[in-house]
Description:
The chain has 583 residues and is α+β, with helices and mostly antiparallel strands. The protein is built from 20 helices and 23 strands. The protein folds into two domains: 142 residues, Alpha-Beta Complex (Penicillin-binding protein 2a (Domain 2)), CATH 3.90.1310; 337 residues, Beta-lactamase (3-Layer(aba) Sandwich).
Amino acid sequence: MTAAQRLSARRLRWCFAIIMVLFSVFGLRLFQIQGFDAQAYAAKSKLAGKSSTVIPATRGEILDRNGKVLATSVDAMTITADPTLTAEDAPQVAGLLLKYLGKDRIDYFATIKKLRTPKSRFVYIEKQIPAWTAKKAVTAIRKAGFAGLYTQQESLRSYPGGKLAANLVGYVNGEGTGVQGIEAKYDSRLKGTDGSATYEVSPTGQRIPMADSTVKEMKPGENIETTIDRDLQWYADQRLADAVRASSSDWGLAVTMDVKTGQVVQLSQAPTFDADDKTGMDDYNTVSRFVQTVYEPGSVMKTVTMAALADQGKITPSTKIKVPSGLVIDKFPIGDYWKHGVINLTAAGVIAKSSNLGTIVAAQQMSDSMMYSYFRKFGFGTPSGVELPGESQGILKPSSDWTKANHATISFGQGVSVTALQMVRAVGAIANGGVMVDPTVVSGFEDADGVRSDAGATKTRRVVSTKAAKYVTRMMEAVTADDGTAPAAQIPGYRVAGKTGTAWRVNPLTGRYVRGQNTVSFMGFAPADKPRFITYVVLDKPYANAGGGSTAAPVFQDIMSMALERFGVTPTGSKSPKVAQDW
C-alpha cells in the first residue's frame, strides 16, 4: 500500500468515527425527547397552537342618590396593527384612519410611523374608541384591500353629566385607573376582575372551529351609590359658576349637607372640568378643593368660638360685652371692618355685626389650651372623615406655640386654615344640637348580581351641649335679620341661621397675607328651629369690596331654597325670636 493510500484509509476511518459519534449523539437526544421529555414537548406544541385574549371587566357605575348615572362605561375598542403587513400601505391606511376617527385622535404622520415600526408585529394605534366608530374604520380599511389592522374589546368611561359634580366623581386615566374623587377612592370596587379566553388556532393564527377552548368569565365591578342629588347638583353648579364669574373670583365652592346624617347632597366647584370631552383637565381645575385646598375661614369661625364659650357657661345670647374701639396685641393692631368707639354689644350683637373685637374680648375667658381643645373637638387639624383622596387636615398649630396674637386672631378665623368640609362639619354640629357628624358622599354599593350593601354608619360625637348649640343658633338667626350682616340669606317662610365670613387671603406662594385680597363666605342652615340642611358658599379673591353677606349669601339663598323644596322640607311656622344686639 502506498503512502497516499494509507493517508486516504486514515481519513476514511476518521470520517467514519465522526459520523458514528454524530449518530450516537442524535440517537441519545431522540431517546431523551421520546422517552423522557415527550409530555413537555407535547404541551409546548399545544401551547404554540393556542391564542389567549383578555375579557376586560366592565367598570361599575357611579350613581346619584336616586339611581341616576353620574359615570358609566360603554363598549369601546383599541385598534392595533401588524407593521409587517401595514408598512407598505401605511400612507393609505393612515389616511383612512384619519377620515373615520378624526384629527383629535389621529396624527397622520405619527400614525404612518407606527404602521412602519421596524422589527415589530404589534403596535397600538389608538385606544378607547367607541366600538361602532372603531368597527366602521377597520371595516372600511379592510374593504379597501388593506390588511394588518385589528381590534381589541375594552370599555370607555363616559360621564353623561359632563361637568356635573366632576371634582367629586373624578375620572379615569388612559389605563382605566381611577384618578381623583370617587373614581380613585373606590377604584378596586369599580374595576372588577378581568376574564380570559384561550382558543386553539391554526398555524396562520385563525381560530379552529369546534376545537377546545377555555373561558374564564370576567367579574363586573360594583356600582357606587352616592348621596348626591343630581338635579340639585346641576342647579348649584350653574349658580356657583355664575357667582364666580360675576364676582371675578379665582374659584368658588358650594356644599350642602344633611345635618342629621352627614350625607352631602350637593358639592360644587368652579372652575371645574369635563371628563367626558376632556376639556379643562389641568391641575388647577381637577383638584378637589373641598378637601384639598386650605384657606383661612374668617368670621364663620366665630360661631365655633361662641359655642365653646356657651358650652362652658360663660356666655348666652344676651351676655353684655364692652367692645373697645381697637386693640394692639403683640404689636399687631386689630380692629373691626367698620370704625367705632367703645360700644356695648350683646354676644348675639357681636355675631350679628361680626365684630372681631367683641369676639376677642369674649374669647379671653378661655385659656390657650382650653380654646385649642374645643377647636380640636370641632375637628380642626384633623381630616373631615369623608375619606376622599388627597385630603388635607388643615392647619391648627398646638396651643403651646400660640402667642397672644394667635389666641386673638384664631378666635375670629385668622391664623387657622381649614378645608370646606371641615368647616361644614363643625358648624353642622351646632345645627345638629351639639352633635358632630362626619360628612359622607357614598351611601352604598351594588354588585353585579344586584345585591346591595351599605357604606356603613358615619361617625358621630357630641362636642357641645344642646343648650350651647341653641344659644349660638339664636345668635346666628340675628345675622340674617333685616339689621344683620346678611339679610340676603333670608328665605321666605323659613327661619334661617347663618354667619358671614371675610378673611385676609394668604398668597400660597409666599405664605403672607395680601392686603386687599379676601376670601369671602357664608354658612347657613334651615329651618333654624328644626335644621335639616346646612349650605356653605366660599368665593376666593372676588372684587375688592365684596363681602360674605352681599356676594356669598345670595348664592346660599338660592341653593338652600332649592334643597328645601327638592326634599320637601316645609316651614315650621314659627317666628325668629327677637334678640337684643346692644345694651
